[in-house]
Each structure stands twice: as C-alpha cells, then as structure tokens.
Amino acid sequence: MKNFKSLISFCAIAIYLISLSSTGTAAAATFVDGVVASVGRDPVLYSDVMQEMFSELGDRSSLEMSEEDMVQHLNPLYKEALEREIELRILFKEATALGVVVPDDKIEDRISDLKKQFPNAEAFRTALNATGLTPSTLRERIRRQMMAYTVRMSKQQQFEKEAIISESDLAQYFQDHKSEFKFETRYLVRRFFLKAPFDAKKRDEVRQRLNDIRIRIKDGADFNALAKEMSDGPEASEGGSLGWVLPGDLVEPLNSALLALPANELSDILETDFGFHFLRIEEIQTEGTTPYEEARIDIEPLLRRKQAEEQYRRWMNLLRQRSEIRILRDAIQ
Length: 333
Fold this sequence. Notes:
By secondary structure, the chain is of the alpha+beta class. Helix content is 55%, strand content 15%. The chain is built from twelve helices and seven strands. It has a four-stranded antiparallel β-sheet. It has a three-stranded antiparallel β-sheet with strand order 2-1-7. Helix 1 (6-18) packs across helix 3, helix 1 packs across helix 6 (121-131) and helix 4 (67-98) packs across helix 7. The longest helix has 32 residues, at 67-98. The chain is globular, with a radius of gyration of 25 Å.
C-alpha cells in the first residue's frame, strides 16, 4: 500500500488525461466514476483505484503513446492498485475495530506537505478538482490511509519480534549469498555531527562550533570522548563510530569526502540539510569479503523482515477470506 503522496503524481497526470476530453478519447472516459469493487459494505470507487494506480507511473512520459498501448500499459497497474485498495479497506476495518485514532493535526500536516508540491494554492485546487476529490474527501482518504498504515506497521513489527531466526539460518544465508558480502574497498569511519536549523545566522553559529571541536581533535583531543559528549548523531554513544562503510553508503557530500580522505585524517566541515559533519577514517580495507560475524548483524534483520512479510501475507490472506470481497471491474475499459 502506497503512501498518500502518490496523490501528487496522480493529480498531475489526471489534469493531462482530463484535458483529452475535448478529443473524445477513451482516456478521458476513464474518469467516469463508479464502484469497481466492494469489501463488505465498503465500496471501492474507480477514482480511488486511479489515485493509487498513478503512483506507479512516476511521470507523464508513459502516457505519450497510442490509446491501445496506453491501456495495455495501465491495466497491470490498475489490477495491482485495485488489490492495494482492497487491502486498505480490510486494514481500515481492522483499525476501526482496534480503536485506532489519527489526530487531526497529523492529517493537516500531511495535507500541508502535499500542498507544498504545487506552485500555489490555485494549482493545488485545480489538481484536486481533477482527481474528483474535495478538501473533505481528501482528508477522509488520508485519515483512512493513515489508520490502515498504522495497523500494517504494528502487525509487521509484531511479526518481526516473533520471528525465530536460528544461527543455522544466518549461516546458510551467508553461504548462499557470499557474493553480496564481497567488497572492493571499505572504510572504518567515525562521524561527528551537529544538527542545525535552517536560519542562516544560527547555522553559521553551529558551523563555527563544530569547527572549534574539529580543531580540538586535531590538536589531540579524544574523538570518541567528545563524540559521546557532544555529537548529535545516533552513533554518538559509540563514539561516533559508523562501523564499516562502503562507497555510496553515505549521502553527499559525505560520500565524496570519504573517497578522498586518507586514513587517520579529519575531513573538512561538510554541510547537509540536517546540519554539519566531519569524518575520520580509522582503517581502509581493499578487496575482501565481510566476515560472517560482521555480516550476521545485517543478515538477521533482513531475515526477520522477510519472515515477517511472509507472516503478514498469511494474516492478510486470512482476513481476505473472512471479508466479503466483490470485484466488479478488474481492468481499464
């Protein structure tokens, strides 16, 4: 089930499709709304499926094709979106039974984020009208999605905790996927990070504070101790240790700095949207395979997620069997 932000791409493409109405093409006709499925007494509208479906298109380029080719391209996406909409309603029913409540301010935050994707309020209203939504129905759709998502995440987390992963499971995965743990170069890295607000003056103050810390470390102060005391990074309790890092693991400009940095030297101050950083490489290894004892740390959560997803699908299939599902339209016509 996709995030509500799929509405962004849908809004943009819906305007394009509806603009075809003057030509009398089938594409425009697809926006005649109606019930295409139901879960118990909860109807699934064609517009609901279209809103979900267009999250898979990404942009309008896939629509720049013949009418027949477009329908062939969209039909598989339509079927997948219909399944997600059915799942949403099943999860929403579960959320209602569990008493899940989404605060109004959370919904308004999501709508504010959505509005920011448009140049102005008028463009947002135009796009909203193109989808057939009103402000109130948009809020209701987001509320239902957030309730359903809450239940899904809760069940997946429950199944992850309940997953039983044996040492032999970990070892077998390592043996079967050894190529995934081979590397050409990897770096043992520490990071010092101070978060910074967007205000330019305050950001300059944070940059200067971090630069003072960097100078202290260059002059001999203990990186680990200062990171534990002053760094804002989640790895601060580990003395700023990020562990072994592969090229591409870090965001820019940290990744570029990593590749150019000699071992045991501090990088320059590096800025991202979140704040300011500097790095130190403690060791560089070239051409090798991550040892099993290190690899198992990454393998275990991967297998837990896989097992949890399988358990989630079994749970969802059971709910589907208990639900009265009717599909009235399984393709774009």
